[in-house]
Amino acid sequence: MIRRGFIAAFRAILADRTAAILLVGSAILYSFFYPTAYSGEVPTRLPVVAVDLDRSGSSRALVAKLPALQQAELVARLSSPQEALAWIEARRASAAVIIPDGYEQNILRGGQGAVALYGNGAYLLRSSTALSGVAAAIGAAGREAGVDQAQASGAPAAPALSLIQRPLFNTREGYGSSVFPGVAFLVIHQTLLMGLALLAGTIRERQGKRRLPAGDLLGIALAFLVIGLCDVAYFTGFVFWFQDYPRAQADAITLFVAAVAFISATVAGSLALASFFRTRERPIQLWIVTSVPIFFLSGLSWPSEATPAWLVALSRLLPTTPGIHLMVGVNQMGASLEEQSGELANLALLTLLYGLIAYARFSARRVGAQETLPRNR
Amino acid sequence: MPTALLESMKRELDFLRRNFWDLSLVTWIPFILLAAVAVQMSAGVMRDLPIVVVDRDGSGFARELIRRLDAASGLSVAEQAPDMQAAERAVRSRRAYAVVLVERGTAEEIQKGSTAEVVAFYNASYSTPSGAALREIGAVVQAYAAQLATTQTAVVLGPGKIRRPPLAVRTTILFNPQGSYEFQLVALVHPAILHLIFMVAITSALGRELRDGTIGSWLERWPRRDAIYAVAGKLLPYFCIFMGWAVLATGYLAGFRGWPVAGSIALILLGYATMYLAYIGAALLFVGITLTMGTALSAAGLYAGASFAFAGAIFPLESASTFARLWSALLPYSAFAKLLAEQWMMGAPATDSVRQILVMLIFLLVGAAIGLPPYIRAARRPEIWGRR
């Protein structure tokens, strides 16, 4: 019985071009297509304009140091802050360095020369990290310039504390390497779900509600488990390597157990949901629109600490929420199964819950009966 | 109004009334998806992000630093780990986003008047919360160092030596002074969700007629010009419904949440309207070329589903590959995201945004010119109906 369901599932996929493309083609397509959005991985030089209102030796010395900054690229020297604002509005520059009048006077008096750095808040996410880098670099460059000028009053004392920042796990620190390793598992989840539901909808359309014996259902589930595990192997083994994302921090057995837990919950959820579809195209139409909110709910890009507690609890009903934490944790951060036991338990409970729903839905049907209601399209 | 347009509109509304799931796709499903994002990000700034501290020094300075870290609004010291292994375990099981390590000898360094180093390890796999935690840790360390300069270093080196560093860089974030992620993200995610659902809904509406073979009885009887009106009438209900969602989403963020519109609300809504028109062009193109509902739907999902990553609003695209920049230019959402930044956040002159509107209209013209003729012709070609 299990064997029959297993083989029938693969036959159905091979016989259905759309399902095959959805299950196999789209995973491969996405694995190349999506990372190109982040192909500018290396934090690039922020285009910056400079406005020197002081026109002194010190300010010129500071402006002269700007082109050498690693974090910023000086694209223009402008004469007024209004002009700089216009450049930012037109997106020709991402930030403006403005040296106010009286800058040199302040330094010579032994005071502090203030430099203003304006960043574009309309692009907060992409510029906030780069801005703090540019601010630090200008500070360092200016300190040298200031020290040259202020020899007479002696060098300032060193600060009592300084902070050193070290990334853990994702040492490349690119956008892609922090987002795509999560997105990959969303892609696997969505393609499995839509592919399975599309096949279920097609069978329902052609043969009406069919009762599936538990063995057949298990066989179908195992077939999709195999496909899902192949997806995981493809992404963690090839794509992450090809894109040079952080990977393979866990041993093979840990990764395998984690993948089985995630894919089992995904397949169980997909079977439960698929039992409700009566039309072939319906699952694509209704489910493809959910990807962006589901990804945010997973808590990889937006932390659960800043999400209302009831929404965090609800998001735990989606296999992607514990699944993405678990897979990123194991594969990128090298977490052990014990450290991720909460996510594993979450996935096991979902597998049980959705498995029971799927079983109840498919076993309650009449044997071989044709659907008598008019087809709902 | 031409009868073809009115009749088709009525026919489509009737269809929506009778079909629960098609109606769902334009009513409660968008509502849930928009609400989920809006509710999730309503906190705007991240508070009390958990961190772990490893104190190898055990001095009063270290204790004071830990107290200050815990008191910072953005941080909460979840635990003090005995060693780095335990601290990293806490990060790997996501009980903390960062580890602050105070090395042995910190107190001595401070008392000698030299610089003691504090190390912050952060989980770069969760870059948004870790970045926020890191900025906060930096601010706490800097503030404490400034205070130590007056109380400690002055004692060692004498008050004359104490000067502030000669240069201070003050960073100001223009257009989003609170640095709110809610403003930035929700403003962009809502139109990203809306254009995807819109495109899926109209691709389904157009493709369904081919699949069910109803395109003949609906479109065949009209002459060519009226057939164009008929297609417009079919899509009009969707356009109106989604303009309603656009007004609601904009009203929520601008009115209810109070994020001021620096430019023109009218231009933002005009931007929404032209964005929908642009995706009508794309849908006509896909349906006209494939003449198959399932394939057109999959193509629509691929085309409109990844807009958010390729728009260049969240991730910089300037340095991305040629393919990514080309793909971005081929998405109407990229132009809309620019218009949104110009009109909502930056208050740019209207003439700047007219450019984006014209760009989006090109999509409608090109898509309709290529996709509409084969679609209308298909009404007289029963042999291609019913393809799955």
UniProtKB/TrEMBL annotation, chain A:
GO cellular component: plasma membrane
Top-rank lineage group of the source organism: Bacteria
Primary location group: membrane
GO molecular function: ABC-type transporter activity
Keyword set includes Translocase: no
Keyword terms: Cell membrane, Membrane, Transmembrane, Transmembrane helix
Pfam families: ABC2_membrane_3
Keyword Transmembrane: yes
Subcellular location: Cell membrane
Annotated ABC-2 type transporter transmembrane domain residues: 24-359
Membrane-related topology note: Multi-pass membrane protein
Transmembrane domains' residue ranges: 12-33, 179-203, 215-241, 253-277, 284-302, 344-362
Protein name: ABC-2 type transporter transmembrane domain-containing protein
TrEMBL record, chain B:
Transmembrane keyword on record: yes
UniProt keyword annotation of Transmembrane helix present: yes
GO annotation, cellular component aspect: plasma membrane
Residue ranges annotated for the ABC-2 type transporter transmembrane domain, each copy included: 23-371
Membrane spanning stretches: 20-39, 185-207, 227-253, 265-289, 295-315, 353-372
Localization annotation: Cell membrane
Membrane topology: Multi-pass membrane protein
Keywords assigned: Cell membrane, Membrane, Transmembrane, Transmembrane helix
Principal location class: membrane
GO molecular function (one): ABC-type transporter activity
Protein name: ABC-2 type transporter transmembrane domain-containing protein
Annotated organism of origin: Sphingomonas turrisvirgatae
